[in-house]
């Protein structure tokens, strides 16, 4: 399947089997007791996370929160935004995504583009291949690398929008009228397709076949990973035996491949050798995995959590809890948490918190953080490298 065919079928792949009704991905960094060995030293809080991102943006030359602004403020998306107002009063996920794009209080929506810019500056120009010396460079970053960072953000934003497609067969009366939810799905598909089309146009302008191949394969990985996520419903987890190894494979596809391959592509644009490209790939991969596990852990460590708040049964703490508990006991716990045909998430959350799944997920988060830091050791010391290290510290330190 080529890139054009992939984009044409992307909404159907992402929406065919529904999507998680609540997404846990924002790195809210509340505190819990420290578990396991760790290389970082700074304490973490939302204010600290914002400071880390703000300082990193100064290093790359301008706030990445405005990277894809010219696309988001285009006439086409402005018209779509007017249509999204019709969804106010419903529970369509597109509204949540739209609010997040406008008011990103956790500075996490543009994280991927920021990382691409930072690792581009940390690596600098190639010392072996000087063919890039005539390229425009601002703040130590080539213009083509800045374009790549914007493309990465466009793809990520498009996937967020497409993942907001609702499974109409699972609607509840509180979600809103059926016609409004159908309308929301159509808007999600159109706006996501528009962003992907802009990303593809930007890729073509880079005129680098390997970079196009890397980003196209990242898109295919995303589709495959999200398809596996969507095909695993809450009920199927009662019968399926999903281990942490399978979870890591699927999570890399759906959450790590884009950043990892974008970091590698940034090195390719600067004509770095295969070893440097691999280290950039490894950093992007492990940092993205840590970021995902951090967000998975949040529902289990927040001091104030609503009893009605759901969490993803495909999250790292839950999968690890199942693995430690064993299949039979897990099925029993699921049954005990059922009330009138519905899953009591508050009761199940307490059972999971009482087990080893949460602390093991924190250890796994730190493992990937350490692997990301190891990859950075191949880059020369610099402000950009320190900023990349601080991002890892902010995502993986819980005390």
UniProtKB/TrEMBL annotation:
Pfam families named among the record's database cross-references: polyprenyl_synt
UniProt GO MF annotations: prenyltransferase activity
Annotated GO CC locations: mitochondrion; transferase complex
UniProt xrefs under InterPro entries: Isoprenoid_synthase_dom_sf, Polyprenyl_synt
A single GO BP: isoprenoid biosynthetic process
Alphabetically ordered keywords of this record: Transferase
UniProt keyword Oxidoreductase present: no
Family: Belongs to the FPP/GGPP synthase family.
Name of the protein described by the UniProt record: Decaprenyl diphosphate synthase subunit 2
Species this protein is from: Theropithecus gelada (Gelada baboon)
UniProt gene name: PDSS2
